[in-house]
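Appendix B. Raw example, untouched.
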Amino acid sequence: MSTNSISREEYKLLEKCKNQFLIGAVTNIIATSSGAIRYYLDTRCYDLAPVQEMSDIFDDASTYSGDDYHQVWSSLIDYYDPQNDYNSLDEHYDTINDFLNDKLIVYIPEFNKNKDGKWFKNLSIYKVIDNMPLDAWYYNIPRVQMEPSLFEDRLRSGAYFELVDYDSDIMVDEPNIVLCGSYAYLIAQGAGRGVFESYPTKKDRWKCNKIEAIKKVNYTEIEGFNNHMIRVTDSTYFMDDEFRNKLCLIEKNESFEIDKKKAVIVSNELEEKDEVIGDNEEVKFLRGLQKLTINNGLQYEFEDLVNFHTSLKTNPLTILAGMSGTGKTQLAYNYAKMLGLSEENNTLLFMPVSPAYTEPSDVLGYLNSMNGLYTPAETGLVKFLLHANEDKEHMHLVIFDEMNLSQVEYWFSPFISILEKDLDERYLKLYDEDAHCINSKVFPSEIKIGENIIFIGTVNIDETTKDFSNRLLDRTFVINLKKVSFSEFFDTYKKTQTKLESIDVNASKCKDVSQFMGWTRNHNINYMDAFKNEEILFLDELDILIRKYIPDGGISYRVLRNIGNYIRNVPNDTDETLVITRGKVLDTVLNQTIMPKIRGTESQLRELIGFSSSIGAELESSELTDLLDKHSDISEFSELRRTINKKAEEMRINGYTN
């Protein structure tokens, strides 16, 4: 093979490799003649299959070993060296050497050609790991993102499951261990190859061909397991050879029965579920919303849309938070379109919030005691609510844009009181009923806030905005929208275009109030029935832990009711199974009800949240994550863990978290 020529297929494989993680340690750091610093890493795991197969294209003369990856200092993670201001090259060298030496480096491989057409194995540092064995060999261990019971059904039945970042085109072999919840599912010794098999065209989808060759071990019960495993993402771990060998030598300590008849049924159901759009009207509505948002350039996963829709069904007010540019307002507009709403027919009101709003009259209006006339505010909110009362057949949606530019508890206070009341008791008071009002026939003293009215607030979190009180947070859901990378959005766009091709957006729209309410399960009635016993035990422990550090925090009965109602209202698909997993549902609703109330100084919350020494470093001494680990059998808690890490980072930088 020529060193300056590879085939198109080989090039595609190298591009795939650039989405994978490797782990290694520094072997050398040198100062170049140009004054740059170059560091070299030795891989401490199997290199990727295409890289091994094309080893002769890489220029060995550029490295100290053909297996080394290297890079110049300029690509090192920004948080460590933001100023890049040194008095001398020696000082620069010493600083880098102290930072990288005697540490494991999780990195993303990169492959570049120089002007002579020679290929080089470069890298981009993803995470720096301290206090782990440097002389150990590490294995890439995939973690499946579903509940163990569902995963075991797929193993039994031979149905496909997804292993993110474990692609058979680029991995050296099939997975020997798959993690799910607190369990490791291992191939028994002597089982041979072919226990797991990848999908012919989608190489990160796998199935189990030999269920009898799989043993199940609760690895979290093995003392010191955290000292042998490195979490890279929710889907990727590295495990050292000592712990991997220990797992493989353990006799099967837990088993799951193989019912061949059930397996065939489950297999058929699961395979159909992978492809089905959903026959019921609510799932069609959600798929229509997904297609509409993608076509409009919004970057949301289907689970995000399910969460948004469920929150709106469950609570009169849902708050969309996130950095500017994440499409909060546009998401609200797209949802309004799926409800058939518009400003032209007075079923949609877009109300920008002004920093000058200090009291309810600023958004509602007031009764002039001098002339007896009620004067509505220029926001148009009162007239809109009156229209909703008259047009009870259609949904009405209010968007409070940037609602925390002013202190929400001031201008929104009448609505906060309404939010906690039952539907029949939700009346917005405009003025005292005994007051003299000449135009009371047009503007009555109170307005019913009916089931056909939804409120959405959008908020930015920065130095120009106001914080929310616990009183408001107890009565709403706060959804923190994540900005996904452009490449992730591009992949999602390509994957879903074909899948959603048959969806007619117009035909998927909600027709009227009765259809929307038909998707809504009664609130406040037997909401405790939504929980499983182990979930209640977990919530009790979580409540006690939070109150230990935040006396007025924790989980109130009102919040518990909101959580129960949310769980009850997550849509089902055709086989009465939740469209997202039970564990994901619990993780999501806790993240948007409990986590916004965990705020305070580092000295107050350090032991609760934990701390990290730098960006990307493992979180240390976190009682919250310890509790999540203890109850990992009910959920992965990936959203909660992400928020906890974010709060730890805020405390590291600012000394407090909001």
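End of appendix B.
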